[in-house]
Amino acid sequence: MRATKRTISIVMPCLNEERTVGRCILQAKLSLKKLGRQGFSGEIILADNGSTDKSVEIARNAGATIVLVPTRGYGAVYQAGIAASRGSYIMIADSDGTYDLGNIGAFIDRLERGFDLVLGSRFSGNIKPGAMPFLHRYVGNPILTGLLNFTYGTRVTDAHTGMRAFTRKSWNTMNLVSRGMEFASEMLMKAKLHNLRITEIPIVYSRRTGTSKLIPLKDAWRHVKCMILYAPTFALIVPGILLTLLGFSLSIILLPGKFAIGGVYLDIHTMTVGTLIANLGITVTLLGILSRLYTQKVLGVPGGALGNAILSRVTVERLLFAGLVLVAGGLGLISVVLVAWIGSGLGELSAIREVIVGIALVITGSQLAFSSFAFGLLEPM
User: Fold this and answer.
1) Where are the transmembrane segments (predicted)?
2) pLDDT by residue (tens digit) across 282-330?
């Protein structure tokens, strides 16, 4: 829906929250009443994900607009609820009683100051006794938040808080697609990649009423998977390049013959492993480049400086040319060995090192050449 200026949309997901949804809506209405004195208007939207109790009835009677969302998932329910909203400012929070919806004014104040995304940090605020399981509080959340901060440079204390506020413009810019719990991670990652202004405020996190919908290991993996998929430069390209350099270095050093480091001798076996490492590195690097191009062209995710620098130098023609040169070099090396073998009367020939390098060059070149066509399919998009 078209956004209305100075209108606040409070969007809450719901799945069988009849014991708390009414209280949450009441808190939200009181916040909107206070903000009304500052010239804001507001709406409360309950995005229901298939409740079988009286949640919808209670919410409707309390004055909320109901949006029924058949597609299951944390992200799916928020996307549907936000799509039905009309506010220029959007506030999201769970309807299970864990978040204080009477504190919305502090979030709106930060948006008014020019921030694009405001997070309610439980870890810099007050986590009530029993509100968060021990492993979630001291292991799961800190690790996932740390990983996201390290990978994307977000510098937040609570990456997976369920209480957030953002502008309509920011929401449209982020273009979120996740349907599960990874929705929270995707929002932060895309906000950072789009250079949106992010801030946090401390909040109170209370013990929920009812049963948690979280599936710890499954949801944690979804967050990690999302972080990896949106960071192919960090997860694939850089490791791939390092593996390639390591593998080719071993192969080149051992091409003339065995090599000693102290009392350790490296020979043909190490050289063979080196070519395998190099081939693995090329495969991972190419997969990373294609993934980076896909996330940028199809998903609209801007890349970092390193990823953009690499993509700016990669073209179909360059990949194809490099591939053909390597294939030609590999076949040439193998041909030299073949000619020498024929010249010796097809007898014994000790040229296994040259053959290994030749085969490695042919395989690597073929990968580059064929990958150029896949690159070409994505490049003009």
Assistant:
1) 228-256, 268-290, 319-343, 355-378
2) 999 999 999 998 888 887 788 777 888 888 888 999 999 999 999 999 9
In terms of domains, do 92 and 199 share one?
Answer: yes
The whole-model pTM stands at: 0.81
pLDDT in tens, 184-213: 999 999 999 999 999 999 999 999 887 777
Among 190, 212, 229, the domain-final residue is: 229
251: pLDDT strictly greater than 70: yes
Residues 188 and 247 in one domain: no
Q: Does 268 lie in the same domain as 140?
A: no
Tell me the residue range of the domain where 266 lies: 232-378
